[in-house]
RNA sequence: GGCGCCAUAACCAAGCGGUAAGGUAGAGGUCUGCAAAACCUUCAUCUCCGGUUCAAAUCCGGAUGGCGCCUCCA
């Protein structure tokens, strides 16, 4: 498989560093509020990548962090800790907040059929590993102390800015954040912060009580679970300039080698062709989709239909289209399942190859979806194509085997009574009465669908 | 102000020099008392202007338009 590496700006063949297992780390959520569907796009990307690697025969070990401490309101060490701020506003402890939103997060990724990484690790449970790095970076001269913390000295790391093509001088001129005068360089960043007494989350260190900087958690935990050097690191494009740049600086300085071989970044989800925004109310949650009657998996389908490295535009019209496509695809799968006709073996091979080739080329799942549809729509319905499609679904994760659009729902007695009357009217070929009853039922919020096997009543 | 991305049918979206995948909507059809659903068929020369080439949506230059980051965010 070839993937685009943000670090080298090239597509590269992915070969496990240890010749056995791809070790990948993905930046996870900061659990201070609900994750919106934009966040989910990145986690879906991680999932598509892992499933594809598995499909193509790679062994994979994946790790994702849960950030429950240290992530300040600004990525570049300004402002309050996000967890603390939320805790303060809601009169709960940071631990309560973390617990609530971690559960919500796991629930959401479950609904989106995102496999859990092999290791899900919490920042607050790895303070020792972080302090170990901080201590050594300080001792090795990569960091210095100020009145409020320990800062990484980017002048000691010549490659700083390589990932994002940073023009450090230009950055300084454009910086809008207040300048911390104790920092030697504006881009120097905190790896450890000294804690004021009232700070709830704090741990003992050689500089007194404190808490970790945000970026250090990923360096410490990835190293703990994946080793000094590993294959893949994923995240959203927003992390390229600060978070990942800092991670590279810390990790590489710590092990004196290149820690991560390949960096992959997922583009943003936009809404109505613009930035997703909490203030405009477009930072939708998975539960918002459900409230409008969409399956979370319809959103998954939507994300499968565009390349991870391209911005995807979310609209309600779009999710509607995705849901319909998903329904139809499932119907087609069912049709193949129930058929005993023979499919052309060569054709099956062709589809299989097309699908693999698409995945192998930098995870081109939208292209692979073309093959999925061509296979599904093939004029001969065959159980072998059913098997093929279910094989593809190992990557897609759409649960194509379930019946959609025919879900049994709780029907109120009043409605089913009316439906009974309508059934009777139809038996009598009293079409006028039957149509009136259908209208009545419709006005009560239910929809009647006549099928060869009888009436189907659905909500909406 | 600095950096970068994108521009393909009504909408979403592949395409990476050899003559436009796929999905949704629309249109036509099969089925049905009707409707819906389902299924089948059908639907674009790639923002504009130059250039390179036997050949360009694909490469180069320019114009116009949209978006993102640099500030919280995946």
List the topology elements:
Layout: E1 2-5, E2 10-13, E3 21-26, H1 37-55, E4 59-66, H2 82-90, H3 94-111, E5 119-122, H4 127-139, E6 143-146, E7 149-152, H5 168-174, E8 189-194, E9 203-205, E10 208-212, H6 214-226, E11 230-236, H7 240-255, E12 260-266, E13 269-271, H8 286-291, H9 296-304, E14 312-314, H10 316-337, H11 345-360, H12 365-376, H13 383-396, H14 413-427, H15 431-443, E15 446-451, E16 454-459
Parallel strand pairs: 3-4, 3-11, 4-5, 11-12, 13-14
Antiparallel strand pairs: 1-2, 6-7, 7-8, 8-10, 9-10, 15-16
The structure holds one RNA strand of 74 nucleotides.
Structural account:
This protein is α/β, with parallel strands linked by helices and 460 residues long. The protein folds into 3 domains: 265 residues, HUPs (Rossmann fold), CATH 3.40.50; 126 residues, Isoleucyl-tRNA Synthetase, Domain 1, CATH 1.10.730; 47 residues. The chain is 44% helix and 17% strand. The protein contains 15 helices and 16 strands. Helix 2 packs across helix 3. About 2% of the residues have low confidence. The chain binds one RNA strand of 74 nucleotides through helix 1, helix 5, helix 7, helix 10 and helix 12.
């Amino acid at each position: 498989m070839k993937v685009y590496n943000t670090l080298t700006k090239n597509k590269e063949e992915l070969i496990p560093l240890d010749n056995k297992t791809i070790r990948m780390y993905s930046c996870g959520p900061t659990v201070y509020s609900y994750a919106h569907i934009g966040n989910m796009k990145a986690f879906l990307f991680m999932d598509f990548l892992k499933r594809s690697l598995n499909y193509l025969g790679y062994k994979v070990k994946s790790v994702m962090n849960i950030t429950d401490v240290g992530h300040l309101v600004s990525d570049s060490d300004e402002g309050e800790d996000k967890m603390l701020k939320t805790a303060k506003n809601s009169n709960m402890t940071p631990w309560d907040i973390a617990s609530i939103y971690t559960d919500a997060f796991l629930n959401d990724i479950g609904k989106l059929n995102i496999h859990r990484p092999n290791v899900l690790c919490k920042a607050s449970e790895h303070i020792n590993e972080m302090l170990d790095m901080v201590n050594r970076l300080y001792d090795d001269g990569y960091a210095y102390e100020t009145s409020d913390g320990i800062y990484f000295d980017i002048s000691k790391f010549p490659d700083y800015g390589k990932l994002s093509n940073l023009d450090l001088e230009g950055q300084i001129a454009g910086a809008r954040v207040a300048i911390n005068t104790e920092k030697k360089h504006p881009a120097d960043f905190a790896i450890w912060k000294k804690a004021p007494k009232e700070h709830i989350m704090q741990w003992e260190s050689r500089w007194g009580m404190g808490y970790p900087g945000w970026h250090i958690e990923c360096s410490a935990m990835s190293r703990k679970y994946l080793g000094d050097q590993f294959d893949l690191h994923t995240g959203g494009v927003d992390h390229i300039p600060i978070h990942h740049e800092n991670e590279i600086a810390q990790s590489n300085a710590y092990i004196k080698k290149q820690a991560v071989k390949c960096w992959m970044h997922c583009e943003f989800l936009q809404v109505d062709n613009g930035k997703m925004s909490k203030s405009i109310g477009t930072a939708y949650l998975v539960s918002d989709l459900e409230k409008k009657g969409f399956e979370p998996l319809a959103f998954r389908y939507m994300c499968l239909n565009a390349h991870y490295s391209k911005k995807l535009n979310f609209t309600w019209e779009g999710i509607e289209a995705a849901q319909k496509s998903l329904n139809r695809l499932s119907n087609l799968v069912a049709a193949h399942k129930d058929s005993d006709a023979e499919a052309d073996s060569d054709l099956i091979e062709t589809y299989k190859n097309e699908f693999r080739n698409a995945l192998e080329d930098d995870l081109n799942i939208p292209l692979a979806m073309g093959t999925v549809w061509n296979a599904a729509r093939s004029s001969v319905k065959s159980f072998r194509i059913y098997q093929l499609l279910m094989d593809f679904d190992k990557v897609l994760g759409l649960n194509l085997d379930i019946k959609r659009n025919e879900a049994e729902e709780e029907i109120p007695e009043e409605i089913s009574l009316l439906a009974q009357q309508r059934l009777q009217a139809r038996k009598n070929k009293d079409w006028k009465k039957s149509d009136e009853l259908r209208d009545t039922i419709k006005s009560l919020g239910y929809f009647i669908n006549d099928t060869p096997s009888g009436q189907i009543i659905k909500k909406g």
